[in-house]
Design a protein that fits this description.
By secondary structure, the chain is of the alpha/beta class. The chain is built from 21 helices and nine strands. Helix 8 runs parallel beside helix 18 and helix 11 packs across helix 13. Bound molecules: zinc ion. One of its GO terms (biological process) is positive regulation of transcription by RNA polymerase II.
Length: 759
């Protein structure tokens, strides 16, 4: 054994010694393509922080509370069981059922034109206001945005070419719709911190940063390499409008406009070294730059694109049977062309679940999941949606918007003037409640009760009560479960089976009773209709001679399940973010997600839409998304292999999140060969998210002489444009005499020896 290790150490440039055998589903061979070399050095702000071994995890050894067990048993009697299956499938499954070659949907490379989608909101705003034309230039998106995803497609083809056995051996589904759609939002990286005056150490505490997208892509690539034909990765080129009705329905008339204007104004403010967000906001968590507009529009467009992928084509069952088949193959093709996807994961930032209707909070500017649900209602008539939130933090904003949907006033909600529908048509009663409106949304969350927004300093009675609310009445369907400490995975899964599964059970209860209620309403409608029909024949015999109005049917029951997929509860989250030692093993994301897919098969024809929320260290994001996607597919079995969540895998993946990553020249173990391929694929997905760790947004209209790295050059050459890459304007520890924004950090308190300053 030691001789093998010695040999490995000798032959490898920097490969770590292998403690554990790593199992991939497929044998993966190194691809031949060279990768980019960077001239620009990455200066060391480290967001790949590993768990701090000095932190003491005080774990609860107590056995699960009996009353809670009984409660769970009672609930599970009426609803399907979600048992924890601790048996992982360790062996590859080669269930190849290959039928028709997928139709070539992507345009050919030569046909792709280099163009960035313009801002719909800006055009709208221009037409109504006097806006300085300079903003057109200020808002020009990064030239690195690879809308057509051409670089990824090239890298993926290269990966398959180097591994011809994958084509033969990988399992795949009969229909394209069964593949999980992963939609990247290339404009998301435009939202970046822009206060040039801060110190390097302050910058290192900005956790919600564009580089999170690179770590996310590496997580996506990890799943893609394991099951290349289970997933389809696409970019959303669409830019939605911040003034769209589904955004204003959630956030009111005024707030989207205010956010838009603050983004525009941030141009002058940042250039003048002034704080760009209002003083009364959480200025430590929330930052803006003018191109945040691009990111927001990209996020809204991506959400719309994702919902469209679930519903925009009529379902196969609803379609007329095709005319006498010319051939069964053509029929199959026809079906594939018309099919929607069932499982969608959207890679977006900034996250959304803390955002209230009229207050941004905890990095979140708009509530992405609620906007998505509203769009699904407006465009496709989705009547009910269960949000399952597994972020470390309580999604106070998502929950507050559910109170508003139920007819109550939100904590930071819209006032009457803010509503886009006339409040007179549905006025409040003497207790401040009005009728609940469609869509009906249930919120079911698993989180740490000690973390934000119930962190010390924010832990008001109200916040603690909100994060612990459990109610399934008064038009409210809200259930909050708190994460527990654990020592072993077995202990964790005991919590899962007895406590955490409750959020799935409650979501199930919500959708069950919604269906029951719909059936009752529909029966009532049929009764009224038959009465009405009789009345038409003999009007004088009914209703005392008074005219009867024709009854209207209830909207067709159309439920959906959404996941607020945050990965900051991961065992690999930065201890500065996750300070209470309460976390989940990486396997949790696969297990939980697979249970959600099972729930969806019962209620929503298998439809699940998952939104990226939190997750701040490269390790938590890459491994968490890897695990989440292994659960978010249509395979019947849980495909997660326990070696995939090992610290060793995480250590390999986070190497690829550094701007100046270099692949192993001669990888000679399964894990390093695999990591090389994963990282190449992940980095090719969003070239604009491969940024130095000290990247700060700055507007540089005339910079011409900054060196262009190889990848940028390739992209620009292929697009026939000439440009520059901006470097960080940040000075190495300038004197920060401003001390502005040193208050109000909701996520982070700096705790350092000999430094008692907290902000
Ligand atoms: Zn979070």
């Amino acid at each position: 054994m030691s001789s093998l290790r010695d040999t490995l150490a000798r032959h490898n440039d920097s490969e770590d010694s292998l403690i554990e055998q790593f199992e991939t589903t497929l044998t993966i061979r190194p691809s031949t393509a060279e990768y980019e070399e960077d001239e620009i050095n990455d200066i060391s702000i480290d967001h790949t922080v590993l768990r701090d071994s000095t932190i003491n995890y005080t774990r609860d050894h107590s056995i699960v509370d009996i009353s809670e067990l009984e409660e769970n048993e009672r609930i599970s009697e009426q609803i399907p069981k979600f048992k924890t299956n601790r048996r992982y499938s360790l062996l590859p499954r080669y269930s190849v059922i290959k039928t028709v070659e997928e139709e070539q949907e992507e345009p050919k490379q030569e046909e792709i034109e280099f163009k960035k989608t313009p801002s719909p909101s800006l055009e709208d705003y221009y037409s109504r206001q006097k806006v300085d034309p300079k903003y057109k230039d200020v808002l020009r998106p990064s030239l690195l945005i690879d809308e057509s995803l051409s670089k990824y497609q090239k890298t993926f083809t290269d990966f398959l070419d180097s591994n011809p056995h994958i084509e033969k051996e990988s399992p795949r589904f009969k229909n394209d719709q069964d593949r999980t759609l992963i939609i990247l939002s290339p404009y998301s990286s435009e939202h970046a911190f822009g206060r040039k005056w801060v110190t390097k150490s302050y910058l290192s505490t900005i956790f919600e940063r564009p580089q999170r997208l690179l770590a996310s892509c590496i997580g996506v690539a990890s799943a893609v390499t394991m099951f290349p034909f289970y997933y389809k990765v696409i970019n959303s080129e669409k830019r939605g409008s911040i003034f769209a009705s589904h955004v204003r329905k959630i956030h009111g008339r005024n707030w989207p406009k205010k956010l838009f204007e603050l983004c525009l104004e941030s141009h002058e403010k940042l250039q003048a070294d002034q704080l760009e967000v209002p003083d009364d906001w959480n200025t430590g968590d929330i930052y803006l730059n003018p191109r945040t507009i691009n990111a927001i529009e990209g996020v809204i467009g991506t959400i719309e694109h994702a919902v469209d992928s679930l519903f925009h084509k009529p379902s196969i069952r609803q379609q007329q049977p095709p005319p006498p088949p010319p051939s069964s193959q053509q029929q199959q093709k026809q079906k594939q062309k018309q099919a929607n996807h069932n499982l969608v994961f959207v890679v977006i930032r900034p996250p959304g679940h803390h955002s209230h209707a009229c207050l941004p909070s905890g990095f979140c500017l708009l509530n992405n999941v609620q906007i998505g649900i509203e769009y699904a209602f407006e465009k496709y008539g989705v009547t009910h949606c269960a949000i399952l939130d597994i972020d470390l933090h309580h999604g106070d904003g998502s929950q507050d918007i559910c109170w508003e949907r139920a007819g109550f006033t939100g904590d930071y909600g819209k006032d009457e003037n803010d509503e886009i529908t006339d409040p007179k048509s549905n006025p409040r009663d003497e207790y401040g409640k009005r009728f609940a409106t469609y869509p009906k949304v249930g919120y079911f969350s698993l989180h740490d009760i000690k973390s934000y927004p119930t962190e010390l300093g924010y832990a008001t009675k109200e916040n603690i009560k909100n994060a612990s609310t459990c109610i399934m009445d008064h038009d409210l369907n809200i259930w909050n479960v708190h994460l527990q400490e654990w020592n072993t995975e077995d202990e964790f899964y005991k919590h899962y089976q007895t406590k955490y599964v409750t959020i799935l059970n409650r979501a199930n209860q919500f959708l069950n009773s919604a269906k029951k209620q719909y059936d009752e309403e529909y029966q009532k409608y049929l009764d009224q209709l038959s009465k009405y029909n009789k009345y038409l024949f003999k009007p004088h015999l009914y209703n005392g001679g008074q005219p009867l109005t024709k009854p209207t049917p209830p909207p067709p029951f159309k439920p959906l399940i959404a996941i607020s997929a945050g990965f900051d509860a991961s065992e690999y989250e930065n201890p500065q973010m996750q300070r209470h030692g309460i976390n989940v093993p990486t396997s949790f994301y696969a297990k939980f997600t697979q249970d959600v897919v099972k729930l969806a098969k019962i209620h929503t024809n298998g439809k699940v839409i998952s939104f990226l929320e939190g997750g701040y260290s490269d390790g938590a994001l890459s491994t968490g998304i890897f695990s989440h996607l292994i659960g978010l597919n249509n395979d019947e079995e849980l495909l997660w292999n326990h070696t995939w969540g090992s610290e060793q895998v995480m250590r390999e993946l986070i190497k690829g999140c550094k701007k100046n990553w270099k692949p192993y020249k001669k990888p000679n173990s399964d894990i390093t060969i695999w990591a090389n391929e994963v990282i190449k694929l992940g980095r090719s997905m969003m070239p604009n998210a491969v940024l130095p760790s000290n990247f700060v947004y700055s507007y540089q209209p005339e910079a011409k002489d900054i060196p262009v790295n190889k990848m940028v050059k390739e992209l620009l050459d292929s697009n026939g444009k000439d440009s520059v890459i901006s470097t960080s304007p940040l000075k190495v520890d300038p004197v920060d005499d401003r001390k502005v924004m040193r208050h109000t950090r909701s996520y982070y308190k700096k705790i350092r020896e000999g430094d008692d300053e907290e902000y």
